[in-house]
Structures
1.
Amino acid sequence: MSNTAEPGAVEAARRLAMDAERVVVKAGTNSLTDEESNLDNEKLDKLVDDVVSLLDQDRDVLFVSSGAVGAGTGRVGYTDDTVEASQALSTVGQSHLMHRYTESFGRYDRKVAQILLTQNDLDNPDRFTNFKNTVETLLEWGIVPIINENDAVATEEIRIGDNDMLSSSVAIGVDSDLLVTLTDVGGVYTSNPKEDPDAERIEAVGRNYADVQTLVDRSSSASFGGIQTKVSGARTVSEHGIPAVIAKSTEADVLEKIVAGKAVGTLFVPPNGSTDD
Ligand code: GLU
């Protein structure tokens, strides 16, 4: 299969990324915690440095951060994985997470705000409008909205499920110009890069989407680090004309490189962005 999309479409998508005024950045639990499930200050500060590099370029950033259940697990030292335990752990982890974000953004005199959402909030037009108005006000004030699912009240029926889908809905709903999903895997690969040394990074996904989907479907979510939901979220966003990139959270200056049009991670090209049809 082809490891890239049509060259014209890739270039057009990179230009959109360079021009992005509003960026949704999503960071996963692995990008924030260590092996004992404690919040990793170095990782968190690095993510904040990256977000601030976009703010310094006068771009709006909405930051979707996981890590509440993970950070709560490390703090409480409780590992039972019932839904009730995860919900309770999320409340411990979420406040700890926000405390650390407040400190970390504070290094740059930047203020943060916490927004917790459920599927109901996204589906209900009034609630969604209220959410959007709050975001617009915060952005106007130069405050960084940090968004997570409201795990304390999100039981099966009202769960969004994971923050890959949440960030995709948010990116579309707030008219963003770019979605970046940061993960411990550096993008979409031809096989699991953690197990296969010959795994190749897929640079861009466009008309080769069906091939990429087949490839991703073949690998189980557990061994592949949940890449399916990242691919599905990125694809949905790109179908709305918004470029999406899945990239490695530990890569130096990862966000700055993406908005400089560099070939980082895997880029999902909006189908209508193609210039060589
Ligand atoms: N809301 C969950 C948390 O903060 C994350 C869900 C996910 O893994 O994407 O722990």
2.
Amino acid sequence: MAIKSPYVQSVYEIAKKRNSNQLEFLQAVSEVLESLEPVIEKNPEFKDTALLERLVEPERQLLFRVPWIDDKGKVQVNRGFRIQYNSALGPYKGGIRFHPSVNISIIKFLGFEQIFKNSLTGLMMGGGKGGSDFDPKGKSDNEVMRFCQSFMSELFRHIGADTDVPAGDIGVGGREVGYMFGQYKKLTKLWEGVLTGKGLTFGGSLARTEATGYGCVYFTDEMLKARKTSFQGKTVVVSGSGNVAIYAHEKATQLGGKVVAMSDSNGFIYDKNGVNLDTVKRLKEVERKRIKEYLNEHKGAEYKEGCAGIWNIKCDVALPCATQNELDGKAAETLVKNGCIAVAEGANMPSTPEAVEVFLKNKVSFGPGKAANAGGVATSGLEMQQNSMRQSWTFEEVDKKLHDIMVNIHTAASEAAQEYGTPGNLVNGANIAGFLKVARAMMAQGIV
Ligand code: NDP
């Protein structure tokens, strides 16, 4: 990593010493710190008040046991996490991830990123993240319900509509949020907007399901406009086939693009005629099957094992929407060689630092996750507003607000990049614009 300022480097060294085995977390911290060097230089008061040292240390970390009984009557034990990272701008806000790979490093990297992402939305939300190493895949509905109830039996003490408002993430969709909300209500007697991503019959917001994918495409559209072009006639590759990927496909297609490839954790499909979204939605949202099954209905399509190969497909726009570190330096070079002009991260940190460097060096428009996928949490913020007002807005109203927020994030990131001497570098721009709001709020609130 290339941090030049001795102060900023010392903050990174402290984080490294305290969290030496947390690689994803340190990757996220180093990327942000590197961007902030010019800001620290201009604002010595941040150093004087140890602002960066406070920023990298979570306000609170919760780690708990989640016991539950499977359908065979056997007791299973998982780990639960909630990182309440920073509350300078509002209640902690960030999703819950259920995936076997979940550990403290992953939850901390996601929570750290969430601080800046939430700040960029312009809504009053702090940053947090949670999850468990529970794998919902292959579990019955009853098993998922019992797990969610046990998870919430501990978490309920630490959250609330004005304290900490979790949402979904990988492995946590409407079903899981519903079970957790039911248990929270039972334990607290409170019907309140404590979780977002709720079902529409009990306080969910229209367009929340679509928000992250749509928002990512709205952001990409702004990047394309800055290059004096649009989605019209562009070939698009979207990795993943979960919530974010499906709605990124939907909006990119509505704007005139053609999505030719999608993936899951086993492999990817390529359909030169355009991936049929109705089939993917049914396979993934209803039947919970593998992407490979797509070939049963679309004979002209191809399937390849392993998800990394998806980046070898020639495209104009790439939208990594699966998981962290899924796109490495080599994949980035292939994308550049094949003429890709824009990459926006629907997932959190899907590009490795080497990949980001390749994109920036080759003047590919690059939208980092904390800006490009902020539409999900922004719409969660809109769900909180509707819950507090006991109102529900129309799909069009929410979608319009989401669109405006994504345009504003693009503008804020572009302007900050310009102001701090790296025009067009939206990684620096998003980090700086997100940071400044949080930093000013922390300064005003004293040493806490
Ligand atoms: P889903 O669980 O709905 O979908 C995740 C997709 O990614 C699935 O297709 C999954 O395949 C694939 N995937 C998961 N792990 C891996 C892996 N190790 N290698 C390759 N593919 C993998 O999650 P979401 O769509 O909600 O989230 C996707 C990304 O977007 C995550 O990084 C998340 O943090 C981020 N995000 C999500 C938001 C939201 O509102 N949902 C908001 C902002 C960011 P399989 O089915 O085989 O597991």
